[in-house]
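re: ur question from earlier - yeah i can do the single chain one, its not a big deal. heres the input i used so u can compare w yours
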Amino acid sequence: MFINRIDALHLCLFGHSMRKPAPLPLRYRLGVLSRCLAASLGGYALTSAASALLAGVLPTAPAQAAVSAMMLGFVVYVLAVLWAFACRSALKAWMGIGLSTLALALGDLALYRMAAA
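and the output i got, formated as tokens:
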């Protein structure tokens, strides 16, 4: 493989070649896009469900429970983003976030129905 002088100098100074790296496959790019959507949209849904449930079950005044639930929502969102990118596949990320959101939403619905009765 022939390396010209400018490329060799750039390699010595910066530790990498000036040549373009090989393009990433479309499957990989779509997986990253799917994880980004799971982290942003799924994380938002999970945070909303968790905040709604926490606001209903925290044993404090309603205003204080709502504020506390919203503050804990930031932690839930960060954990959802970490989960989306820590999973081995985008499908596992979607399943974990989706099932957690469903469980929290069902819990919130049950709490709402108990309060309405």
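The chain has a mean pLDDT of 89. not sure if urs matches, ping me
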